[in-house]
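Q: Structure tokens for this one, please.
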Amino acid sequence: MIATPQATDRSGTKVARLAWLDALRGIGAMAVVAEHALPWLMPSLRPYWFSLGMYGVLVFFLVSGYIIPASLENRGDVGAFWTSRVFRLYPLYLLVIAAVLVMAFWVPVRPQVPRDLSAVAAHMSMLLDVVHTGALADPMWTLSYEMVFYLLVTALFAGGVHQRSGTLAIAFGVVAVAAGLVLSAPLLPGPWPAVAACVLFLAGLACLITGRFRTVAAYALGLMALVLLVFGSFVPWFGAAILAVMFTGTALYRWERGTGGLGPVVAAAALVAAAPVWSIQAGWWWVQPDVWITTIVLAGGTFALGMVLRGRRVPGVLTWLGLISYSVYLVHHPLLKYLNALAGDLRSLTPTGRAVAALGYLVVLLTLSWLTYRFVEAPAQALGRRISRRRSSSPPQAGRDIPVPG
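A: Here is the predicted structure, written as tokens:
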């Protein structure tokens, strides 16, 4: 999990660990699992008055928006932040990629994945969706927007303007509405954006971690992320709306700390809700106004409820699910594909057979996710922390570190 920084709420209470965020991650992860599994295992239980999967994803994005800037600001060290991010995200991500490629001898790779260098480049940078490249495992598309958010937050931190979260949330909401009105496809087509972005990403990441040309790299990567988000995404309005949601999460963090108001949160939410209404790319059932707005309200309400109850004891099962949520998120879809291939077609089973398969799937998924957390995620995160501590204890090199703004 993300190393949760010390926080102070409006009553002045010190919170050592924000367990409610872990609980929200657990809820979000299981909602996404349900979205993918129910059509195969229990189709009659899948709701269509809101999108379970998008609900879970929006909860995740609100959590990231709330905690990631706080993590960077509390560290005050861009190099340590990115070292932590690399060791947090990549080990399990690369393991799942390797597993999917090995299993490709049995279950073919998704047809949406290009069979050329652009696919390799897009997966290396994690910028898959914003360079219009299909992922080896379907849920990986959300990591694109996590990465864009990290890059933008780093650039804002470098420029000392990271406190303007509410303004940014509204700005991305406006971009989402405008992009929906005028853009129907990426304006940067072809495989070259994935390759160029990967080269710049790797070079810039090296600068951020080592400290060489760090400020220039932060600005360059932030600009690249912004350009790709608007002009390289599969669905430009959707990418901008996601960033509006994430900066809304940051604005809520500012409000909780007493450094911002709730007005920008309301304005950004209204813009995100309106974004697909007149959009050219809005033909899917889950972005129809009633479904989309209901999903947004439920996700926002869940996050708000978590904030209201943040001082109370969180059920252990939810914090445990939050602990393994990244593993659950990345592992569940390939596992479902392999289960379906093994069974022939899960939808052809009897109701009893599907119920047994659903129970078995959950048991295997949660067990496997715990194992990957225990033996992949946790050791990698511990290694990242050790490296960060060693870097922090080394004598600073003049002119290399971004000072903590304000």
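A few notes: The beta strands are 7-8, 14-15. Residues 1-16, 395-406 have pLDDT under 50 and may be disordered.
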